[in-house]
Design goal:
The chain is of the alpha/beta class. The chain is 42% helix and 14% strand. Helix 2 packs across helix 10, helix 4 runs parallel beside helix 5 (126-139) and helix 6 (150-160) packs across helix 7.
């Protein structure tokens, strides 16, 4: 180990640095050390070694749009501010025409991915989900549809009276291209019981992932951090994902997601900090040696933190997004229009000395020399409240 590396990491992290430099897999105990050390700079330094070994200065982004087709949900997760409840957001479920309208709002923008998730709404029939995917494909031909977390897949199978495998096969036939992360938050029985007991448990979530892999469906993975989980539970989550990736090899990207307590049942908890955000990204990069990509989601951790994260292990800055309704503060994003244009994305990445690479959802690089059209300011009308 060089003197320069030793000075940055210090004696506490030197054994881990030796493993990183040798390309060896880190242990559970190494993960705990990375979370608990005061030397965040050293952790980030090691994560950047792995990031640059894999990707150099390249930082990926995608031109995408989010669709949240319903906020009606029967899972009542304590960490969620999105689902309809008394004193909270009004309930809605989008018709296919409303989904088409949402997509048409951005018809002047070249979008390659539509990311679509929603609440667990027991009133939606099986055919709705198939038609939903088809509507996206028809409205935006050629777009990649990344839709439905594992908990949604289980609900779709339930209402259709079919197996998980059959539901996934039918969705693929309709045009589904990949599964997003989410649906499990943290792979911990304790956290599951306390915060989201009505959703899938860890083994059920893994079973959906295995079914997707068997059908050749790519998937993303996440971890929601900053609520009641412990350092041990964070590391265990990463180790379990690493083992599952060893088995299935179908995960594309890992995204640490910071918890925002505003408007949730956990509102008493502290807001996320840049230290926590950067540490989770860096530790993820170091522990998940079989995940090619680690993403920083600027919507949740902010543009400045994402810029820093590009030197703390992240090689992906997500995308243009356009609307995101899962995490936001009332009034802060008045019409929920949260967007970075392609030019914004490139500037955000290049400002910190990285090379911006546009990608599609499967990380194929896109070369586009056409000048970007100005984005027309538009007021996004709210989805009408349904009648119960």
């Amino acid at each position: 180990m060089s003197l320069a590396v030793s000075r940055v990491v210090g004696p506490e992290l030197e054994p881990i640095a030796e493993k990183v430099l040798a390309g060896e897999r880190l242990s559970f105990e190494d993960g705990l050390t990375l979370y608990r050390t005061h030397n965040l700079t050293g952790v980030g330094y090691l994560a950047n070694i792995v990031r640059e070994r894999l990707h150099g200065a390249k930082t990926y982004y995608v031109r995408n749009q989010h669709i949240n087709y319903t906020n009606i949900c029967n899972k009542f997760c304590k960490f969620c501010s999105f689902y309809a409840k008394r004193g909270g957001p009004a309930p809605y479920e989008m018709s296919l025409d409303e989904v088409r309208q949402r997509l048409s709002w951005h018809s002047d923008v070249r979008i390659t991915e539509v990311h679509m998730v929603g609440g667990i709404n027991p009133r939606l029939p099986y055919q709705y989900y198939m038609d939903l995917v088809r509507a996206v494909k028809e409205t935006r031909p050629g777009v990649h549809v990344k839709a439905f977390t594992a908990v949604e897949i289980v609900e779709i199978a339930r209402v259709g009276g079919v197996t998980i495998d059959q539901a996934l096969a039918d969705l693929i036939e309709a045009g589904l291209d990949s599964l997003p992360g989410g649906g499990i938050e943290v792979l911990s029985d304790r956290v599951h019981h306390e915060l989201f007991g009505k959703k899938l448990n860890g083994e059920e979530w893994k079973d959906v992932a295995r079914a997707a892999a068997k059908l050749g469906l790519k998937q993303y993975a996440t971890m929601l951090y900053g609520h009641i989980e412990t350092d041990e539970e964070r590391v265990d989550h990463l180790v379990q994902l690493r083992e599952l990736q060893d088995e299935t090899k179908h995960f594309l990207t890992f995204t640490p997601l910071c918890f925002h307590p505003e408007k949730t049942e956990l509102e008493h908890l502290a807001l996320p900090t840049a230290d926590t955000d950067l540490r989770n990204i860096a530790v993820s990069r170091l522990m998940l040696d079989n995940f090619e990509h680690v993403k920083s989601f600027w919507i949740m951790n902010s543009v400045p933190v994402t810029q820093m994260a590009l030197w703390y292990g992240a090689d992906d800055a997500d995308g243009t997004v356009h609307e995101y309704e899962i995490t936001y503060k009332d009034g802060e994003f008045g019409n929920k229009s949260q967007v970075l244009t392609r030019a914004n994305m490139i500037r955000m990445i290049e400002e910190v000395g990285r090379v911006a690479i546009e990608r599609d959802s499967l990380y194929n690089e896109i070369v586009d020399n056409e000048p970007e059209k100005p984005v027309t300011a538009r007021r996004l009308e709210p989805v009408p409240m349904i009648k119960s």
